[in-house]
Amino acid sequence: MAILARRGRPENKHAAAGYMFVAPFMIVFAAMFIAPLAYAAYLSLYSSRLVGGTVFVGLQNYTQALQDRQFLSGLERIALFFLIQVPIMIVLATFFALVLDSGRLRAPRVFRIAFFVPYAVPAVVAALMWGYLYGAKFGPFVQIAHDLGTAPPQFLTSGHLLPSVANIVTWEFAGYNMIILYAALLTIPPDLYEAASIDGAGPIKTALRIKLPLLRPALGVILLFSVIGAFQLFNEPQVLQPAAGSVITPAWTPNLYAYNLAFTDQRLNYAAAVSFLLGFIILIATYLVLILGRLRRRST
Amino acid sequence: MTITTPRRTKEREDLAGRVPPSSIRGRGWLPTIIMIAFFVYFMIPLAWLVIASTKNNADLFSTFGFWFSHHFNLFTNIHAVFAYSNGVFLRWMLNSLIYALVSAAGASFLATAAGYGFAKYQFPAKGLLLGVVLGAIAVPTTALAIPTYLLFSKIGIVNTPWAIILPSLINPIGVFLMSVYARDAIPDSLIESGRLDGASDIGIFLRIGLRMLVPGLITVFLFSLVSTWNNYFLPLVMLNNPKLYPITVGLAQLNATANNGGGSQALFSVVVTGSLLSIIPLIAAFLLLQRFWQSGLSAGAVK
Amino acid sequence: MNTGQPGSSAAPSRRQFLAGGSAVAAAGLLAACGGSSGGTPKVAKSVNPSAMARALSKPTQLTFWTWVPNIASEVALFEKKYPKIKVNVVNAGQGLAEYTKLRTALKAGTGAPDVVQIEYSYVPTFTFTNNLIDLGPYGANDLKDDFVPWTWGQVSKGDKVYAIPQDTGPIGMLYRKDVFDRYGVTVPATWEEFAAAGTKLHQKNPSISMTNFANNDAGQTFGYAWQAGARPFALKGTGLTVDINGPDMQKMANFWSPLVDSGAVSTDPDFDTDWYAALTNGTYATWVTAAWAPVFLQSSAAKSAGKWRVAPMPQWASGADVSGNWGGSTSAVTNQTKNPEAAAALAMFLNHDPASSMLMASKQFLFPPLKQTLADPAFVGLKPSFYGGQKVNALFAEISKTVLTNFQWSPFNDYVTSSNNQIFGGALIAKKPLSAALDTWQASVTNYAKQQGFAVTK
Questions:
Q1: What is the CATH number of domain C171-325+405-457?
Q2: Where in C281-411 does DSSP place strands (E)?
């Protein structure tokens, strides 16, 4: 009954005002995003060739993409990336946030800003720095290994490339996620801690029993963003490509594949179909994550 | 769950800085060591960047990456950066600044208004609209850049700043953030009493709501700022005139030129030093706006 | 975005057939272009000379996309000659970056420049889609004999000229004299000698390689193939012959495979920081590369000054004298130009005017395709100390004459370049048999061509 009352007619008196507030955003959104998207969707139903021009092919591009081994292997790689990089990054971010919040760290502000700074670095510059650091012949780590007499690390070989890219992404975003979690920790009422310390709980117990559970919503949010980010992986492999040569194939990630289809292969229509397919898959993935989150919450 | 006002957050922060009354002194060294280790990890590439910026082109390739060379070239390099191609670097920085500031201002305002509308009002198809907005985050736009270009070309905004600014006004995550923030920060009662006083909806928003939304707005502003400043792909596709490039595209082009011989110009040192200079403004912005985005985030993070 | 000023109407209406007096027309055009006459003028459709002169003295704005640094100096010479024409020089990116923008603008129907720098390898890609206009009517054919013949073949089809050669990259061999002396290596004249020297060198010092075959450089792959006599592509209308795994390419691949396997030849990506360091430190004993390399080394491997020398490219047959080309650009005019006369004049002047050509050779160190500059003592006589006082330009000028003609590029060079990096380059890195890689590459390109609608033959 209460729910109905909230959504009852008296509210709809102001529906026009509601539209008014969201209108500016929605108009720009429609023009700058929906319109190009619709046009791209339209294009994805065609196929154009250097010889013969453009023809309507319906959903053929989509069925082709679903059987495209390059697309599928890129998808596999991204799924692997997601399963490895995201948990590590989230665990790190959580650890950092908890330590920051523990009160046991000297100069927490320094750590806070230092860990956050990589987020401010554009991917172009990050790849420049890491491209050099990963250098197989004259990168500093190789130099150090040489001096120590150990085998030089091979960051940019096909076996190690995924972890190397995962490292760059973690470097870029761990601090950002830490800040979000830390901010959430700050909102926990201090009385909860006092109650816990009266009960004799040490810092670790406090962290695990009180802070972590209360962090769940924030963790959910950053998990969602990380899912989307992982599946859309493009910037880092793209900028590393010159240094890593043929190890980063044109279809290394599905997003990279779509890009190369459009810009290198001149297959604009197929590229659009691949993009939409990827977007659809991402939507499914985020939906799954949301559902799993809700199931977890209900079971505790 | 309710929102914490900025003052309470600051209290909590101060509390975090104090050693808690119950005994656990001296057992904090392990986390501290780990944090220091990660501090080094996060700073390593930047340290390399700073050190490399002090080297001249020849030394860049023949000295150890993490230590300085015998020649201290930082100021020569900085001069070379600003002198390159008739001072186009400064132009690039200014472009980035303008694009980022205008876009962030517009984006945060649009997101705030929309978030407020979604949070405080009910209207038909509201769920659908919000769903579409959030769903937009999921679609990768890299390959859609060409259709976007073709469309923009028809309305004639290609190769102008509008091709960068207009798309950057859309921040779906900002809308989501602000809707959560508005839901918690502005009690319905306040709006009701405003209405009883005879104020219009816009009046209530501008006079009462906006003030309470400031921390969230600044958060969205900062994130939009970062996102537009760091945007590489959109300006790459939309702009053909180097005078309009933001710093990301300019640096990438400079790097490509250096890599491909640079026409016998010794450009690597310019690229490295230019990269260093390009990240300073954003870091400065972070430091200055620290207080605001902390509290803004603390609300949005709590669903 | 620059669009031409009103005043000159569109190109097609300007083309008029000359009933007679072609000599007069030719002379008039030559006077307008400022070049010296070579062979006899031909009868062809061309723009009436007075109409051309009129167009060139109308206030005009041209946009010129190029990545040649400081080309403003050469452009200034042009503007001095044609004071009513203003040229807006724009660096829209280098190589592929520029071509991507160019293609998008061409597709959109607006935003493309009047004149654009295009490498030889990409000219067919843009002529196939009819995006470059024929410069013949504006007098380009009269310039033919002033250019080294194989360069003209790269930009023309019959008497249709789609671009004017700007610079070239005939291949020679740069070697480290100090490394050769230290390990007792004599300068190889044939590939056989090269292989023997490389094996010996690598045995004596395993951390050095004889040379680097980049795994990400189609220019290098095809440059070497060019010298070997390979003709991987031949386009006739919409029929494309793809012969990437033909006998000449196989010969080249089979030569390099054992050297790569043993480590005598390294396969690092080129033009990155590691590679520059290797050149500086003598980790690569030679660099079998194009004429633009000497000057380029002078800035990026400055610490190795005085240690390099230049020799001709190793030959397949003893006593032969044949080379290939790696890189080099042209100036072309796009079909979006509203001022074809002025644009054509700019393209022709920049690359054909002796003063401009000499300036490009001495200031930007672009290796000239113009016979006059190649014979100019000021150019040929240079003895850079970086090469121990050797007359580097003279040597490359000779090599330039030996580049094989009739090498053709595909009409989709983006794809070919990318697949080179993936397939051929991938095999180089993984030390897999290069000959098998050629087969895979052949199949890949054939598939792509068929998918794009070409009638593909082998």
A1: 3.40.190.10
A2: 286-290, 308-312, 329-333
